[in-house]
Amino acid sequence: MNVLARRAAAEFVGTAFLVMAVVGSGVMASRLSPHEAGLQLLQNSLATGAALVALIVALQPVSASFNPVVTLVERALGLIDTRTTGALVGGQVLGGLVGTVAANLMFGLDAVTLSTHERTGAGLWLGEVIATVGLLLVIFGTVRSGRADRVAFAVGGYITAAYWFTSSTSFANPAVTIARTVTDTFAGIAPPSAPAFILAQLLGAAAGYVLVRILYPSFTDAPAAPAADRKVLS
């Protein structure tokens, strides 16, 4: 298997497991804590954040974006070419759909059921713009400042928090948004609501790209250890 195929496969697998975490934990939360919306969201956010940390740590040596807006910004920054971008985004979208089907089946639901959970309104769309901008700043700010080994924890922490401080519960991912249209569960989004969410995410991606270029115009090396630490290490 060539390098591009391996990277696309990693994006497929990683996005599939990410969506299984989102949808599966949503179903479990609904069953364990019925009529407790806040507790359901807490359970869903913690499971998603933890899964992101684990998946990024495991797959980062191959490819671990799991998100088309991240991949598109990588393309805009010249980090990958157009062919690679298409392969990775394709893997992400397909992986997300497979993840939803797997989660539905694990919990005894129909493999595919279109969501009836409408999510619409200017406040939710603004929430998606903000969630996406913040995610990109966290990812590229961490990586471009020479701390790529910490990006898994930064992303997991941010997404867990963004579930709570954004009105939309921080989808911030077109592949995950598409995948969540085919589950009529806690995590679902009605198909008519998805295009506006994805558009908001793309607008957030554009704004995030601009901020990344302004704040982090180039990669920097990892910060040098303080003198005291260097003595200990030497």
Instruction: Output the radius of gyration.
Output: 18 Å
Would you tell me the overall average pLDDT?
93
Record field, number of beta strands: 0
Shape: globular
Q: How far from one another are the termini?
A: 41 Å
Percentage beta strand:
under 5%
Count of DSSP-assigned helices: 9
Largest beta sheet, briefly?
none
Uncertain residue segments: 222-234
Order of helices and strands: HHHHHHHHH
**Helix-and-strand structural type:** mainly alpha
- Helical content (DSSP H or I, runs of 4+): 55-70%
Describe the fold and architecture.
- The chain starts with a helix and ends with a helix.
- It has helices at 3-32, 37-59, 68-76, 82-106, 122-144, 151-165, 174-179, 194-215, 227-233.
- The chain has 9 helices and no strands.
- Helix content is 68%, strand content 0%.
- The model is unreliable at 222-234 (pLDDT under 50).
In summary, what is this structure?
With about 230 residues, this protein is mainly α. The protein has helices at about 5-30, 35-60, 70-75, 80-105, 120-145, 150-165, 175-180, 195-215, 225-234.
Topology:
Blueprint: H1 3-32, H2 37-59, H3 68-76, H4 82-106, H5 122-144, H6 151-165, H7 174-179, H8 194-215, H9 227-233
Based on the model shown, name its key terms:
234 residues; mainly alpha; 9 helices; 68% helix; globular; disordered C terminus
